[in-house]
Amino acid sequence: MSESDQKSDAQEWDEGDPERLYVITRGRSGSTEKAAIDLVTLVVSRSGPMPGMQPEHAAILRLCQSPLSVAEISAYLHLPVSVVTVLVADLLAGERVEARALVPPAQLPDAALIEAVMHGLQKL
Amino acid sequence: MDFKSSELVDADTVVGPRVEDTLPSSATAAVKIVIVGGFGVGKTTLVGSVSEIRPLTTEETMTQAGVGVDDVAGVERKTATTVAMDFGRISINDELVLYLFGTPGQQRFWFLWNGLFRGALGAVVLVDTRRLEVSFDVIGRLEERDVPFVVAMNTFPDAPSYPIDELRTALDLPAHVPIVDCDARKRASSRDVLMTLMRYLHSLAVTPEPS
């Protein structure tokens, strides 16, 4: 990689620089709740944001008035999934949100689930 | 505590989903399918042609492994990459939501795949017959991880058209793995690819995978 490539990478990278991401997650890379949070976990707010809340937490509570997946939260907030996962884990621990839809990972998915998906796709 | 200095999100300017893109409160379960293929093979096109929302992009930020985590002073010098992934959504019924993730097949992104494939129903390998070599790596990796997949050959005007049997031989695929032609720009064609995957998964759920 040439020096100019490295420089342009660094510039593109400004927004999500690791130091800032480290700060908003307060240095944590995860918790026990995090293990259960998937890209497609649906998050629903239990209450609105409170004054004085960390802005990222407040933004998630506002977004999740209707169920929204972790991937969608990440897209709307322009934050990496790994950061959103930590923030959602905080909110779960504080009982501010409900997490739905941890469809258990199975080696081979259940036939009834597959039939439901096929039925839905046929309507497209 | 004052977190102002940490703000990455300006809460007042966050644009959430449009009203018509919100899920009903009855949505209680989500499943995912991963679309894998090289750059420019049509992953986002396929996702977009069946998705009920305009495809969204999520990014993951990767710092290079091997950099000392305690070296705070060196943080700004860590080399880092952003890997983007486009995804879409299909509401299957009032309770169940299907998400489709398009992910690059290149080896350097494989470290992202653990979380992506965990709990996924299965995968679609989208193949560009002009660049079959990308697909070899992807298919080998999916086989290693026991992720069930089907192969879809996206139709490009200037791409050589392979008979399915020849493609099967070229990709060294076992007879039970479905291969289909598709036009990722067309909703019906993309839907058929997903249906092929679901029928295949159904056959695996009903009868054990041939060894």
Automatic annotation (TrEMBL), chain A:
Highest taxon above the source species: Bacteria
Range of residues in the leader sequence: none
Positions of the UniProt region annotated as Disordered: 1-20
Compositional bias annotation for Basic and acidic residues: 1-10
Pfam families linked: DUF742 (PF05331)
Protein name: DUF742 domain-containing protein
Organism listed in the record: Streptantibioticus ferralitis
UniProtKB/TrEMBL annotation, chain B:
Tagged with keyword Hydrolase: yes
Record keyword DNA-binding present: no
Gene3D superfamilies, per database record: P-loop containing nucleotide triphosphate hydrolases
Keyword tags: GTP-binding, Hydrolase, Nucleotide-binding
Pfam family, one: ATP_bind_1
Coiled-coil regions, chain positions: none
InterPro entries named among the record's database cross-references: Gliding_Motility_GTPase, Gpn, P-loop_NTPase
Family the entry assigns: Belongs to the GPN-loop GTPase family.
Protein name in UniProt: ATP/GTP-binding protein
Source organism per UniProt: Streptantibioticus ferralitis
